[in-house]
Amino acid sequence: MWSPKLFLVSLCISALSTCTAAGGGKPLVSAVTKDASTSLYTAPLKDGRPLVLDLSGPVITLTTCSSKNGTVTTLSANATDGANPLFPVSFPAAASCGAPPKLPAAAVGVAGLGPSSQSFLAQVARTQKVANKLALCLPSDGKTTSGNSVGVAIFGGGPLIFPDRGDFTTMLAGTAPLRGFSGSPGYYVSANTACLGFVRAAGQAPAAVLGGFQMENRLLVLDVEKKQLGFTTFLNGVGLSCSNFNFTLAA
Ligand SMILES: *[C@@H]1O[C@H](CO)[C@@H](O)[C@H](O)[C@H]1NC(C)=O
Ligand SMILES: *[C@@H]1O[C@H](CO)[C@@H](O)[C@H](O)[C@H]1NC(C)=O
Ligand SMILES: *[C@@H]1O[C@H](CO)[C@@H](O)[C@H](O)[C@H]1NC(C)=O
Question: One GO MF term, please (predicted)?
Answer without folding.
Answer: aspartic-type endopeptidase activity
